[in-house]
Design a protein that fits this description.
Transcription Regulator spoIIAA, 18% strand, 306 residues, alpha+beta, 43% helix, 11 helices, 2 domains, five-stranded mixed sheet
Amino acid sequence: MTDAPDPVRDAALAPLHVLGALALELTAGADVARDRLPQGDAGALATLIASDLAGFDPDAAALDLVVVGAHYDPVELLRPGWPLHRELDDLAARAPRDGHEGGRVIAFGSHEDRLPGALSPSGDYPGGTLRLVPFALSGPPSRVAAVGDRFEATLMEQGMASAETALEAQVAFGVRVEHARYLTVHDLAAMTSMQYDHAGLGPLWPLLETALLEPDGEAWLDAGAEPLVHYVAGEARIALFPPRAWHARYAPDEPCDTEDCRERLERQYQHFQGRQRQFAAVLGAHGVAVNFVHCEDAAGARDALA
């Protein structure tokens, strides 16, 4: 099992590691034969990933590379404290050093279809066309920082995987790969932000971004007709309004003196409740704890979520 999040340790993890993934864009509707690889196939894929990364920046070859031979939905990587990458780091720390020059390539694969630690992909997010093979680079802080800066500046635009790596991933996982490229976790967050905006979830992203990049931080969603949400103390607190309080906060100028008006407001209220459930589901998928807070008084809702 992975350790519980440790803010001090997690803060120290980021500067000493480059966290990223090989992003596999799959053909929509195509079958996926497997989501994890046996050790030998995981090692072969990791070796090709190491070669690609060294091609982007030769200094990457001097860093330790740890890869898991499995692919995941983006929400499994984009979680506060980067728990999947942290689990890779914890497992890699136990790997022996052989004394050779340069960085090591450490690959974790399955044995009898089981991956070590907490690395098993979730079965809750099937069917996505973007799947991610996570990796982490570690080593001397100054070198890690330099490689990390260059990757942040270049991978999004120039990080296409080699044809050999893409083919290896396609054959090993039994998938149809349209494109294969490398992303840092910050690239992935930026890309997810745009996708959520297009899907109508843009108002939620600043709060989710705070949870990802500043887990001990604080953020509010308090805009227009959207649910009231406060991210604080590592959880998202969502205000639950009974009909009267919702009416007072979100439709104070509606007289509601006709049957048509009351029916329309009831539809709006149901839509609002659906939006709350949608936000809660997205936050939960990203590993953010959700706490619903009953708010009988609309005027005091922010105080109730504080």
